[in-house]
Amino acid sequence: MSVQIESSWKAVLKKEFNADYFQQLANHLRTEKELKKTIYPPGPLIFNAYNSTPFEQVKVVIIGQDPYHGPEQAHGLSFSVPDGVPPPPSLQNIFKELESDLGLRRPNHGNLTHWANQGVFLLNASLTVRAGEAMSHAQIGWAQFTDATIHALASKRSHLVFLLWGKFAQEKAKYIDAQKHLVLKAAHPSPLSAHNGFLGCRHFSQTNAYLVANRIQPIDWSL
Fold first, then answer.
1. Do residues 201 and 97 touch, judged by C-beta distance below 8 A?
2. Which positions are annotated as active-site residues?
3. Which of 176, 147, 153 is nearest to 57 (CA)?
4. What is the mean pLDDT of residues 142-164?
5. Lower CB density within 10 Å: C or N end of the chain?
6. At 106, is the secondary structure helix, strand, or coil?
7. Model confidence over 20-53: pLDDT tens digits?
8. What is the DSSP string of 147-193?
9. Whole-number Å distance between alpha carbons of 155 and 134
């Protein structure tokens, strides 16, 4: 089927778009819309992570679980919210770690597009969610699609940094050759777990050190 997505990703994931499960996924979303269900993010932003960070430009991968399910929060980038929306608690902890690790002042917004445009691939394992119902689209096929995305990056690229925060993201390590890439693991930045190893992990400075060591332009994490 034809999907509106950045051309390099469209080529890399062509097999997925033509698979039966993806057709069923698309049908599921159409049915929910016909039933007047509200789905986040809005249709044009479902593939925002892919459209913001083309395949060959990816340097860092940050894996989230599913989009925010509150009004106006989700815009297709994991952990990010649009301008004008207060940063949710997990994102506030990410900013705390940035301040501790790199001395960066906490921003007054939660829009991470600046990261995405530099090669930070902000991927949620599910690309959609029903309003007010966390994980409501976790079983409709997105996991197969995003696992294929991670596998493609891990197999076709080299010297990427994968930031795996929390048990859910860490399960994706099985797709990644740690000899070929840098895999950094920590607790999830959620207030429920951030003090169990996320705060103090220094993943941002470690990421840039690895990129520089491999002659790759580091990320400007300031926002």
1. yes
2. 66
3. 153
4. 97
5. N
6. coil
7. 999 999 999 999 999 999 999 999 999 999 999 9
8. HHHHHHHHHH--S-EEEEESHHHHGGGGGS-TTTSEEEEE--SSTTT
9. 31
Which residue type is seen at 200? G
Please tell me what DSSP assigns to residue 66. Answer: S
CB 176 within 8 A of CB 70: no
Q: What are 183's two structure tokens?
A: 């895999």
Count how many residues are written for the chain: 223
3-state secondary structure of 64: strand
Cβ-proximal residues to 55 (8 Å cutoff; 6+ apart), any chain: 6, 8, 9, 11, 12, 152, 153, 156, 157
What strand order describes the sheet that includes 60-64? 120-124, 60-64, 161-165, 182-186
Burial bucket for residue 176 (CB in 10 Å: 0-12, 13-18, 19+): buried
Mean pLDDT, range 91-103, rounded to an integer = 98
pLDDT above 60 (res 19): yes
Q: How far apart (Å, rounded) are the C-alpha atoms in residues 17 and 2?
A: 8
